[in-house]
């Protein structure tokens, strides 16, 4: 106990000493309490007991037939436990899973212990209560009780869609927490960039972020994709902290690539970071997996008519900087191979070939919607039976780096709506329509107006 406490003091000391004049919570800068992260029930920067469960979050398998709950402890435990039950009943099921030590790649090689537990088959249209526990030396420390719900028996559902959120200046977080508590949304997609950065201060900032977002991720299953801010140590923080994503079900090597089915939707998570930082073999593996997954999904279009792909980097954007010019073009066309002549398959031809309906992205810190688009040109003004995919950037949940300015124009014909404030999106899916609504998050933490709404129809 004394050694553990001393190590904690040293880590905290190094954490504080790295603070600078840059914005609080920026990469390499300590996070501090602000009006968006000091909310009732939110407890991200306190000291946790060595075996106390923390960083609780869940994900779904296809059709919410099962859930996987992951959490962390600061010490190795004898047994990690998940117990859950239908809210209306008292018969509890206890499950055990896999445990491992995650060692941060920083100078201290700081270690936390992660636990991933899968439920048995879940009943549809059911609200489940659950809690996790950590047992050591005959004593078990239990978490608070959380709730989630499985897919209803109706053919329409909604999910939340956000991107680019930090510990500080998370303007949309108060409204996202309210949405998570409402039982209105079946899961949440996050198109990359969290914490800014998880590996900061030997992983302490990652712990703080996961405890902050526990108020969302423990209630609404997280179905996200990594961004460039998760890239440290070969994405080790992301791969370990989100090891409960359904990548094995998707026949993928890790949680950077996966897909799952949910009623009328096939959702694909594809890390665009592979194009930017991956080896040639990694790029080929990712592209082959994506083509194979989408080919299979297209054969099931009668059952699941909509295909949505979530990535971090956009293929089109109207903001200032190279992300919207050279990088976007490279992602569309594919990066050059080692011979500097031929290219790997770009993302756009794959989306067009497999008739993807929508690309959900982040990275650029604003909101922008395109018309149906291909080859840097608008292909239609209507979203009814569109000839190509369309793209939405929803990268404005709020983070310490601030917003992204749009260029002064003129804008390309594919750019339909641009909004530089803060917000989050909700998506409603039925067998014939997919409707995305983007909501304003005001700087006082309240919910603002509807910024944009559109419908893709079949």
UniProtKB/TrEMBL annotation:
The keyword Zinc does not apply. This is Purple acid phosphatase. CDD domains: MPP_PAPs. Residues 159-367 form the Calcineurin-like phosphoesterase domain. Residues 1-19 form the signal peptide. Residues 53-150 form the Purple acid phosphatase N-terminal domain. It comes from Syncephalastrum racemosum. Residues 390-446 form the Purple acid phosphatase C-terminal domain. Keywords: Glycoprotein, Hydrolase, Signal.
